[in-house]
Amino acid sequence: MILKMKLRKLLIFLFVFFSSLVIFGQIKVSEFIQTSKLSETDNNALYFIDFWATWCGPCIHASKYLETLQKQNPNNFYIISLTKENPEAVKQFIRKHKTGLAIAIDFKGETYRKHKVLSLPYGVLYNAEGTKLWEGHPAEFKQYHIKRYLKRNSKRIAVNEMFQTSIYKEETSKEAFVLNKDFEFFRLKEDLNFNSLQIKKLNGVLELKGNLKDILAYTLHVYKKQINLSEDLNESYQMQFKLDSNAFFNQTETIMKALSINKQLVKDKGEVLVFNIVKPTFWDTRQIEWGNDSPHFLIGEADIQADNVSLSRVKYQLSNLLETPVLLEDYVDDSKLHDWQIHYKYFDLMVANMNDNYGIKIEKKITDYTQYVITKKAP
Q: Domain spans of the chain?
């Protein structure tokens, strides 16, 4: 009997102990951009996650609505707006679009995946024990929901206990590239397969690592399926260019000479995206600042952000994300650097975004486009 009582006490203790572990850090975030300027309590019974993005027009309207709800309910209720975007881009956005809500980053998308967020805006309500109480479009979450759930959920938890913060640190290469020439290349092992091109820029060197098709698509700024070459030519390489050298400014020609290959341009016909730019309203290079050795692109599931990137590079990224050739119509100044923030997941939204922000009109067409046929030079 005594043994049973001891066992029961032990089980109760373990249950309480592990329950407390579960309660701590219900929601994972990478970092906080700002805490709430409207909530007046640190310990709250209800926590609302507002999944949003800077490119999402409906999200902005939803955030304004949620801001009103937070003002009306400053106690016992806490709203956090969570995005997967780059912190610097978000900071830049909220400098222009002020908000009193708490803002946080889910850089690796862990919390987005946990909640299976497929469309934005989206909202989820939790109590202090981590039980999901409500989910749906934030505009459908009303004042009466808050009153009802507050009556049923009295337990409170502090903000810093509800959220588990794990700051995302972008991995950067520590290896020092030492280049004796303007261009060097190495053929990589046959068993190395690259799902995508690896691009690094560090210490005055641009490094490309991947198969030849992907490398040439990058240097030619085109959709990779516009590069036609035989399987035996499509080997994997590591290629390094000294920045601002002749080889760097003539990457395709440098590669062709080094590998003894030819390039023939042929016309094909199919669906393409045509960019028509009459009066460009491009951003300057002061909108996003990630640092000199940071990647120039941040590509999410629905949007692209870019720091100091030319239109030709944006065209390259979009063509490969959308799996469609992209053509520029009567526009030659495509090498000047700009900052960019582009939605690409939903076509109509992308069209509106590009026209409103950059003066780029996008149209789908069936027309001629260039294919690049790569062959080995005769010995």
A: 25-165, 178-259, 262-374
Q: Which residue, among 122, 36, 35, 121, has the nearest Cα to 71 in the 3D structure?
A: 36
In 3D space, the residue among 186, 315, 323 whose CA is nearest the CA of residue 258 turns out to be 186
89: helix, strand or coil = helix
Residue 379, beta-bridge partner list = none
- Per the omega criterion (within 30 degrees of 0), is the bond before 87 cis? no
Which CATH code for domain 25-165?
3.40.30.10
Give Cβ neighbours of residue 180 (< 8 Å, ≥ 6 apart): none
pLDDT of 19 reads: 40
User: Which residues of the chain register pLDDT less than 50?
Assistant: 10-25, 167-175, 191
So what's the pLDDT on residue 248? Answer: 94
| pLDDT value, residue 97 | 82
Cβ neighbours around 180 below 10 Å, total: 6
| Cut 0.85: pTM above it | no
Burial 95-113 (b: 16+ CB within 10 A, else e): eeeebbbbbbbbbeebbbe
